[in-house]
Amino acid sequence: MDFLPFTRPNIDEATIAAVGEVLRSGWITTGPKSRQLEAELSAHVGGRPVRVVASATAALEMALQVAGVGPGDEVITCPLSWVATANVILKVGAKPVFVDADRASRNIDLDLAERAITPRTRAIIPVDLAGLPVDRDRLYDIAKRHRLRVIEDAAQSMGANWRGRRIGSFGDLVSFSFHANKNMTSGEGGCLVLNDEDEARLFEKLRLQGVTRHADGGMDVDVLGGKANMTDIAAAIGLGQLPRLEGFNARRRELAALYFRHFDRQLGCELPLEDMAQSNWHMFQPLLPLDRMSMDRGEFIARMKDLGIGVGVHYPAMHLFTLFREMGFQPGDFPVAEDIGRRTVTLPLFPTMADEDVERVCAAVSGVLKPVLSV
Ligand SMILES: *Cc1c(COP(=O)(O)O)cnc(C)c1O
């Protein structure tokens, strides 16, 4: 049987042809395709300004700069995310203030977030883990009352919605990723949704060396920028993906529903929150019943691989990484995030999977776990 990876990008022939056209056109860096992608993304989020960049990590870092976050500032986030979420806080010289995850949603616990606010808190970075949106009503209520900026790390929640409103179409700064594994891709890439044209202009300068070009051919530099522009090669891929996003996400939702139907509840795994209305089902992640298993997670992943099934881990709680341990974070600081991070496994979920693939994965999980479970 073919190996079933935990995810796989879905690129059609029209997109491959469009990339070929860009390559033949003589203009392969940022140009008309990048501007077209920005216009189409803006339409996707109800007309708000959108700018594309080389990665969501770059978008998040520059979003912090647009929000005026720097040395001496504190930024609240959750340690259960891809490490980019906290790295960018360090990159701008600010201090990451972690708060634990909520067990049901596995997203940031907003009660704890509110309690972590100090006079130095400038911003909060919520993460929609696996594409399940953080409670936007409560989030923006807190932000408004404490005058905090919000930089939404929506890397995983492209096409998801909060109470029927598309993520990115409201709120403060919103960052999406087009990494190869995300629900839509440009190979590598990302974008930021901003509040107005002034913010968009500052963001444009930050992504390309701080340069403002003048009509007479001259230029000026008045802020320190970096190098994070998107190529038209990548933008052509993104343009081929965006019109298919809703279809991709609808299929992901169907596959997630099949997981809930076929997964053996007797195994003692904890399943994710069954949200069939708002999540874009970026990932399907049971938590293993490790304390009842005579096998660790690494062995489970290896046994699944022997059965031709790819299993990922997204993510270990990041405050336990050496970089953050050296800043004083310790085991036990965030018990929910640590428990989820220790037990989580990402099972295959991508739009071109067949219904039978889900049944095969569920059967394999049962086959691997049953013999090693104690009662
Ligand atoms: C993928 C991801 C990022 C980073 O996106 P890149 O485009 O790879 O830089 C940040 N945060 C989360 C939660 C992600 O999943």
Automatic annotation (TrEMBL):
Q: Which residues carry this modification: N6-(pyridoxal phosphate)lysine?
A: K182
Write out the catalytic residues in the record: K182
The organism named in the record is: Chromobacterium rhizoryzae
PANTHER family per the UniProt record, alphabetical: DTDP-4-AMINO-4,6-DIDEOXYGALACTOSE TRANSAMINASE, TRANSAMINASE
**Which InterPro entries does its entry note?**
DegT/StrS_aminotransferase, PyrdxlP-dep_Trfase, PyrdxlP-dep_Trfase_major, PyrdxlP-dep_Trfase_small
The protein's superkingdom reads: Bacteria
For this chain, the family text in UniProt reads:
Belongs to the DegT/DnrJ/EryC1 family.
UniProt keywords, alphabetically:
Aminotransferase, Pyridoxal phosphate, Transferase
| This protein's name | DegT/DnrJ/EryC1/StrS aminotransferase family protein
The alphabetized list of GO BP terms reads:
polysaccharide biosynthetic process
In alphabetical order, the GO MF annotations are: pyridoxal phosphate binding; transaminase activity
Checking Pfam families in the record gives:
DegT_DnrJ_EryC1
Matches recorded under SUPFAM superfamilies: PLP-dependent transferases
Q: Give the signal peptide, or none.
A: none
User: What CDD domains does the record tag this protein with?
Assistant: AHBA_syn
